[in-house]
Automatic annotation (TrEMBL):
Sequence ranges assigned to domain Enoyl reductase (ER) in this UniProt record: 16-341
Keywords tagged on the record: Oxidoreductase
SUPFAM superfamilies in the cross-refs: GroES-like, NAD(P)-binding Rossmann-fold domains
Gene Ontology molecular functions: oxidoreductase activity, acting on the CH-CH group of donors, NAD or NADP as acceptor
Secretion signal, residue range per the UniProt entry: none
Organism name: Centaurea solstitialis
Name of the protein described by the UniProt record: Enoyl reductase (ER) domain-containing protein
Superkingdom assignment: Eukaryota
InterPro entries assigned: ADH-like_C, ADH_N_2, ER, GroES-like_sf, MDR_fam, NAD(P)-bd_dom_sf
Amino acid sequence: MEQQGKVHPITRDIEGTPQESMFDIKTQTLPPLESDDVIVKCLYISIDPSQISRMKHKSSSHTSAAATSKIMPGMLRENCGYGKDDIVYGLLNWAEYTIVKNGNTLRKLDPMEDFHYLTISEFLVNSISTPIRYSVGTSGLTAYGGFFKVCKPKKGEKVFVSAAAGSVGNLVGQYAKLFGCYVVGCAGTKQKVELLKEKLGFDDAFNYKEKTDLNLTLQSYFPNGIDIYFDNVGGEMLEAVVANMNPFGRVAACGAISQYTNSRKQATPNMIDIIYKRIRIQGFLSLDFYTNDFKDFMQMTIDYVRKGKLCVLEDVSHGIENIPAAFVGLFHGHNVGKKVVQIAQE
Ligand SMILES: NC(=O)c1ccc[n+]([C@@H]2O[C@H](COP(=O)([O-])OP(=O)(O)OC[C@H]3O[C@@H](n4cnc5c(N)ncnc54)[C@H](OP(=O)(O)O)[C@@H]3O)[C@@H](O)[C@H]2O)c1
């Protein structure tokens, strides 16, 4: 039987800020399966700023890590390593169905291993509705690795986080507070600033869009200087932070979202400051921590979540039609916490 499904193919290279009008939606008929192909039905799609880099070149793929996806019943080849109703995640298209060659870019989710005793049905229906592995998982590993392994914090140190109400930033701030640091975050709306201070336990927060002089702003929030900066945005904020850092300060260079849509926003921090204050700026990728740190990260995170000490912030849209809006919204600060789009119920 022919399988049809909706898909958002990429139709042009994106330069500057993405617009919803740049994305089409089409109905596709899936081609006949070849030997060892696996057909995956998408349940959730993760929406991430870095996906824009895959849309900037003609040769790039238009894939997105799907939070959970389901192997289509009755459409499996034998011995492909997956069974009917297995829940998997991997790099898939922005589509209801994706054919994955050999299934080798997929990973089967194991409720025991991946969710620490949350069952599949539990994670699909309970308050931690999308898999904790994804909502807290990849962003959490980024936050955990960048903060604990790259910045090597000491209790009482002063930490600044940009895009602090976003997927990675909110977790950095929460980890840092739970660890015993003084934490200030910035975000782009009054509501986000209130959320950081009132719900997530940040010591202070400000709306960077209301500030005309970032240098003076940071001086007022950190009269004794910044020890750690978790950088999600790059640009002029990084320059202002370096000017306000203490000797031996550390910068975790996680992302540079201000540059993704405007290449002229490249930060040029004062190198004399970096040299004399012995500031360390280190880039990293979440996968750097996957082998050695994932287990400790998950144990600590699940423990905090279960004890109600760590808040899981998800921002869920529904329907494949809403993927472009969700994606474009990241670059306008429309999301609060981890952005995902639910494509199907089961
Ligand atoms: N190194 C890694 O392995 C890794 C892994 C995951 C993510 N990242 C990076 O980490 C950063 C955060 O990712 P995320 O998934 O947590 O995204 P996110 O924070 O959930 O969403 C992006 C947020 O960035 C803010 N923003 C958008 N445009 C901005 C601009 N021009 N200047 C300042 N802020 C802007 C918006 O919030 P406001 O309301 O505050 O403006 C928006 O909500 C991104 O740069 C991403 O590429 C890196």
